Amino acid sequence: MDEELDFDKLVNLATKEMFYTIYDRMIDLYTKTPKERYDKMLERCPQMFEIFSLKDIASYLNITPTHLSRLRKK
Q: Beta-carbon neighbour count of residue 67 at 10 Å?
């Protein structure tokens, strides 16, 4: 990275973006309701249910699979 300044900039940018993404996620877990987190997830990635299992999605939202099923019904 010392020799390739472009690569160094790319790594720096990727690291910053990853930090902000994780930081926003942590803030959301503490400040948003499960419904708000679910809605935000659907807005960002509507095909989520085609890719991941309900158990994995519930874990990502920090809720139980039962609670996720109730949110999906509404």
A: 15
